[in-house]
tRNA (guanine-N(7)-)-methyltransferase (Faucicola osloensis), 302 residues
Amino acid sequence: MGFSLIIAEFYHNHPLSHQLRFLQMMTPQPTQTSQTVDAAKPDAPLLSPNPSTTPQPSDENSLSPHYRAIQTFMKRKTHVGKKAEAGLQSDFAHFFVQPNLDAIQAMDIGGITNLRELFSNPDAPLTFEIGFGMGTSLVEMAKNEPTRNFVGIEVHEAGLGNCAFLAGELGLNNLKLISGDAIALMQQLPAAHIDTLQLYFPDPWQKKRHYKRRFVSADRMKVVERVLKKGGIFHAATDWEHYAHWMIEVMDSLTAFENVEGKNSEGIGNFLPRPDFRPLTKFEKRGLEEGRAIYDIMYRKV
């Protein structure tokens, strides 16, 4: 029996699902190269380099265009309430570093290379908060410390608008807001630029294959190290125990930082007792209601 007759008999005697599977088997598949295998590995590094263009340690202000950044955030669609919608209008535009709503929505951080110049008192202490949520705690901190400048960066328009609206209600002049990727922004800021960096209740990325997205990693903390002044503070808080101990392990491994609370008898950095200056956040309240402990960590750049 010829091959064409065998094919005809197969199609006549088998259901459609078997026919489709047969077609897939007969179709040539693309060859998997070592590059595609490496790209699929769950434990890939923060940045995937082209080996021939690996940047030297002196290349601290920029990364090679051959690098592919792994984002620490996922921009989800969120409901924009009335306050947030109002906060994105022209009456509150002076709180935003970006010039218009299009740039905010596009998370365009082009040209933002100096945060101190955003304020009339550029020499004042500068706090940079990453992922401020709806902005209630950031606004409260800015209100409580009028002689300190605050810059918050967030990716969700609901939080950006709500924060601007709350700041406008209080008439704050020491707070600016940016829409965008914090790591990308810090890479274009001057060295020794920030006094305090705050990271309150970041996404814990609980699945093991997502650990590479956690903000606190050795690679990302080197970016933080560069922009912090000597003696500058990194302060983080989380309600996920695994992430809390992960943070301590990462920070203890970096010689550029020391734990403000010192180390225990086993040489492991201590957690910080909850500070009074950190306002209660929505995520912290939710964690407490669900029975989780709250962990604060604080490290100083040496």
